[in-house]
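Duplicate of earlier report; Delta(3,5)-Delta(2,4)-dienoyl-CoA isomerase, mitochondrial input re-posted below.
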Amino acid sequence: MCPHLGVVAGVSPREMVELFSELAGNPDCRVVVFSGAGKMFTAGIDLMDMASDVLQPVGEDTARISWNLRKKIAEYQETFSVIERCPKPVVVAVHGACIGGGVDLITACDIRLCTQDAWFQVKEVDVGLAADVGTLQRLPKVIGSRSLVNELALTARKMFADEAASSGLVSRVFADKEAMMAGAMELAGEIAGRSPVAVQGTKVNLLYSRDHSVAEGLDYMASWNMSMLQTEDVMKSAQAALEKKSPKTVVFSKL
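Output:
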């Protein structure tokens, strides 16, 4: 296992904030690969957990009940937002079903891969609620077709691997999980071999530009690179290019 790859498996949502906060600040981690360990990626909402954790909020009156419920929803939102904010690129590998919260999770990741048997479902309308922890905000920016997003979110129909690829939800489809994980690790290795200053700066600026105008994105980029261009990584990469060496042969300092 490459020491610069952080691999996440079997992590509950409540552990996500602590985990990704640690990964964000860990200089030995350059890329995160996220995958499911069971027969499927995610099974969706546990109705018993939801009934006890969300549908029975505490409070003496409507205002206090609502305030506490809002805090609980915000906590769940943060379990996925922390993935998006992590400066290390996150590659997610999906096999089998990816239901409900799984869609919230993968839309917060940077690169999405799946197996041929994978399928995706925005399931929340089937359990009487609007998806409230990220799908409705991120999926339109991932797919780009408002009509398709509306259809998926309003009908809870399944989207299978080929449609996920053609719509842009995933960038690659693999025959099976073994092939997918090999592809995910190879991709992560390619990213980890590049300058961490360049990689993390690219992710930060891609996210900023997604939510701002072109002019604002360019201004932010100029402010970012006025300091980041002073990295030794630029000279190291230029020297490798002059010597016709692969960027992967350059040894970059940790970040």
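The chain has eleven helices and eight strands.

Merging into the original ticket.
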